[in-house]
Amino acid sequence: MKEIKTDILVIGAGSGGLSVAAGAAQMGAKVVLLERDKMGGDCLNYGCVPSKTLIASAKRAHEIATAGEFGLTVSGTQVDYAAIKDRVAHVVASIAPHDSQERFEGLGVTVIREEGRFVGQNVVEAGETRITARRIVIATGSHAAVPPIPGLEQTPYLTNETLFDLREKPSHLIIIGGGPIGLEMAQAHARLGCRVTVIEAARVLHKDDAEAVSLVLKHLRADGVEVLEHTGARKVGGEEGAIWVETESGARIEGSHLLIAAGRRPNIDALDLPAAKIKATRTGITVDDSLKTSNPKVFAIGDVAGGMQFTHVAGYHAGVVIRSALLGLPAKAKTTHIPWCTYTAPELAHVGLSEPAARTEYGGRLEIVVQPMADIDRARANGTTEGFVKVLVVGGKPVGVTVVGHDAGEIINFWAMVLANGLKMSHITNMVSPYPTVSEINKRSAGTYFSPRLFDNKMVKIMVRAVQRFLP
Ligand SMILES: Cc1cc2nc3c(=O)[nH]c(=O)nc-3n(C[C@H](O)[C@H](O)[C@H](O)COP(=O)(O)OP(=O)(O)OC[C@H]3O[C@@H](n4cnc5c(N)ncnc54)[C@H](O)[C@@H]3O)c2cc1C
Ligand SMILES: NC(=O)c1ccc[n+]([C@@H]2O[C@H](COP(=O)([O-])OP(=O)(O)OC[C@H]3O[C@@H](n4cnc5c(N)ncnc54)[C@H](O)[C@@H]3O)[C@@H](O)[C@H]2O)c1
Questions:
Q1: Which of 24, 68, 313, 418 fits a disulfide with 423 by CB distance 3.0 to 4.6 angstroms?
Q2: Disulphide bridges in this chain (predicted)?
């Protein structure tokens, strides 16, 4: 067995692990990085990148199908599902060099392509190598949770790890789970000409603003997606190409393919966490707000830590750990300024408190501003008038924002900046937005907030009359 001593050992070369490894190595630390599968983790290989690339094809298909509204006649469009998957693979391959073993070795990281397993409090074995580290960062991510539905184990099904390799277009895709994965893939497939049924045990996108979700649902249904809510899958069966699902409400759905998108489980089974006295639950490794596990020499970041499961959160966690493990500075991971976006059409994005949480916390002090997209001239020109920005304001400061509409994920960036820096609505009125842009909606939201204060205010009217009397 080969022995290595290092400053930092990172287990998992996905969004979180790669960011820690790159940062630590470039700041002069000795870094060892373990990866048991593909460099780049879920986001690059089985998650964000392939899903958003597939959505891009679906968006084109939809634009062509609705070109008539813009005075264009298009005929004879064919969907070549295999060619779309070729493009998905091509885009993944074009990003892969950034996450590659070669690039990281070039940064001075020792990359070992083996599975890591704890054999002591700060000792990990990976293949024929034993690594002893001053600090260890677990960034092993998550995998698709497969619910214990009778018959599922004997039935062929897809997960996010196999969906993007599928080359024959499903004639009828049944999806169990109406979270971000389920809905993004449902709409993309419907727009590519598949029949799609989503079975959701609770309500779809249950973490998001209910009013915004209902707009998303309206559009999904208009695209032909059948969405069954508040009913779980009771029984599943069938064979390749002929799958059936019975729901708790008694419906029987027959389709060609089944996608399981029913949440995530942390990748912890191979780690032998008890050997390092690290505590975990079903949802992830237990961490404090500095991302330390129950073993103070070991951190856990990203999906495996069981909190918000997004690439940008894994990257943010990496920064917190670098500050603490490398520079010895106090660092805490917060969540109130973390945005997210579900890339359906319309997109649905959020940052900060939800409306129910803000009501509980602030009661009567909460003010709500809703700015419709239809008031924005550029949205009219673009034909994307559906949607709104909803800002939850307390004492002049936004505490939560939901955006639903075209490019909501782009618009939420602005509000992420506002919340991260504790800016007020008055700061937003100071800016000037170029006309005509869709992002004008942000400034308009601040205008909508201040309008009643300015225009429905007796004192302002009295003051203006008085000033007008004395002005030369
Ligand atoms: C279909 C889909 C779409 C998504 N879309 C988005 C999106 O649009 N935006 C967004 O922000 N997030 C999205 N996500 C979530 C995002 O992919 C994850 O939050 C992100 O990848 C988590 O990063 P991570 O570093 O924690 O884990 P990962 O990126 O999964 O990396 C973990 C790595 O650890 C390796 N590993 C595991 N165990 C071991 C071990 N014992 N030893 C060595 N290596 C190990 C794994 O092989 C993997 O490479 C999506 C996820 C899915 C499934
Ligand atoms: N755009 C993005 O940023 C993006 C996209 C995809 C995924 N992600 C990340 O990946 C995570 C996982 O996504 P997800 O959609 O799998 O998870 P999720 O947990 O958000 O949604 C899973 C859904 O499946 C339902 N469900 C579970 N068991 C079921 C059953 N037996 N029958 C019917 N419904 C059932 C749940 O009620 C839930 O609504 C997300 O929470 C998010 O953090 C992000």
A1: 418
A2: 43-48
Each residue's pLDDT tens digit, 111-169:
999 999 999 999 999 999 999 999 999 999 999 999 999 999 999 999 999 999 999 99
Do the beta carbons of residue 204 and residue 229 sit within 8 Å?
A: yes
Same domain for 114 and 29, yes or no, is yes
Shared domain check, 159 and 255: yes
Task: Kindly state the tokens that stand for 368.
Answer: 């709500």
Domain ranges, residue 374: 339-455
Which region, left, alpha or beta, applies to residue 238 given φ > 0 means left and ψ of -120 to 50 means alpha?
left
Tokens 């805490």 locate to 332
**Would the pLDDT of 457 be above 90?**
no
Q: Which amino acid is at 97?
A: P
451 has a pLDDT exceeding 90: no
**Distance from Cα 45 to the centre of ligand 1, integer Å:** 9
Residue 141 alpha carbon to ligand 1 centre in Å: 5
Distance CA 327, CA 300 (A): 17
Cα(81) to centroid of ligand 1, in Å?
A: 25
CATH number of the domain to which 109 belongs: 3.50.50.60
The residues, ordered by sequence, that sit 6+ positions from 263 with a Cβ below 8 Å of its Cβ are: 144, 145, 177, 179
Query: Are 128 and 271 in the same domain?
Result: yes
**390 Cβ contact partners less than 8 Å away, ≥ 6 residues apart:** 209, 211, 212, 355, 368, 369, 370, 371, 401, 402, 403
Closest atom of ligand 1 relative to the 126 alpha carbon = 42
Burial of 96 (0-12, 13-18, 19+ CB in 10 A): middle
Task: Provide the annotated binding site.
Answer: 52, 116, 140-142, 177-184, 200, 263, 303
442 Cβ closer than 6 Å to some ligand 1 atom: no
6 lies in the same domain as 35 = yes
At residue 470, the pLDDT reads 85
| 429 and 349 part of one domain | yes
d(CA 432, CA 243): 55
Residues 198, 116 share a domain: no
